[in-house]
Design goal:
Structural class: alpha+beta
Number of strands: 15
Radius of gyration: 28 Å
Order of helices and strands: EEHHHHHEEEEEEEEEEEEE
Helix content: 10-25%
Number of domains: 3
Length: about 280
């Protein structure tokens, strides 16, 4: 058995023990950053044409960790070596399974229902999770950042555990698979909420229509007018859907209400289910 003492770096390095052997540890992150810088305009153009993102959205998206980019960069570097034809044989040595799984990949799963409480007037938001202490589950630690965080001071820290998902904030959860995690591994998830009002004229419109009497008469009972829901919090301001004149309304009534929602133009692409909870008082 030969023990090699070469210090592996992101460049081809000769192994001292043998005169015909060189080693290279591909730094996929560094190669990926170089690739992104070289092809920045092309990547942004593709992102803009293939989504509803505007220019600022694309710029923000470009700063995120692009899933699978590390693996692609490693393949590109190996293909370059093959094309150059400088070496008779190229041996690819991957890490043990636990190490291979760790990184910006599917070892994490986001779930939950975003409650939309973080500035509901805005468009999509980004939650970020970053490994701060490496190791296996129950040893590794991570920090997480809510939307709008500058990335300097985390909103929370916790130990990586497998099994039950852990809540980050506002109904967003993360679950980790059994793997060995590396410092600076990072994941992000986009969340969206449909504002119930924006641009002063768009959002959720309530239109009261037909009044029904389970008991009593509808005389003196009036349906409210069509109105764009108002407010800035997760729960909107109260709106009037039905009124009664003095000495009227002494019965049981219900009213048909039509709801219509105009979605902001740069909503994330996907399928959504809208649930409206109306409290009558």
């Amino acid at each position: 058995m030969i023990v090699l003492t070469a210090l592996l770096v992101n460049s081809i390095t000769p192994v001292r023990e043998l005169d015909n052997l060189w080693a290279l540890e591909i730094d996929a992150n560094a190669v990926g950053e170089d690739f992104k810088k070289e092809h920045e305009e092309e990547i942004k153009k593709i992102a803009k044409r293939g989504t509803y993102f505007d220019r600022q959205d694309v710029a923000d998206f470009y700063e995120l960790a692009i899933p699978g980019l590390d693996e692609i960069m490693a393949i590109i570097e190996i293909s370059k070596l093959l094309k150059e034809g400088q070496y008779d044989l190229i041996v690819l040595d991957t890490a043990p399974t636990g190490h291979t799984l760790s990184g910006d990949n599917d070892t994490t799963t986001f779930s939950g229902t975003y409650d939309g409480a973080l500035e509901v007037q805005d468009t999509y938001k980004v939650f970020r999770v970053k490994i701060t202490t490496g190791g296996a589950v129950d040893t590794a630690q991570y920090s997480w950042y809510k939307p709008g965080n500058d990335g300097i001071t985390p909103d929370g820290t916790a130990v990586v555990t497998s099994g039950t998902p852990s809540e980050l904030s506002n109904g967003v959860y993360i679950a980790f698979a059994a793997a060995t995690y590396v410092v600076d591994d990072e994941w992000s998830v986009l969340v969206d909420v449909f504002p119930y009002n924006y641009e002063t004229t768009k959002g959720l419109t309530i239109t009261p229509s037909v009044i029904h009497a389970a008991s009593g008469v509808t005389t003196g009972i009036t349906a409210g007018t069509s109105v764009l829901v108002s407010g800035t919090a997760a729960t909107s301001d109260a709106e009037t859907i039905m009124t009664a004149d003095p000495n009227y309304g002494l019965g049981d009534y219900y009213i048909d209400v039509d709801l219509s929602q105009i979605i902001h133009s740069n909503s994330l692409v996907g399928e959504y289910t809208s649930v409206a909870t109306i409290t009558v008082s």
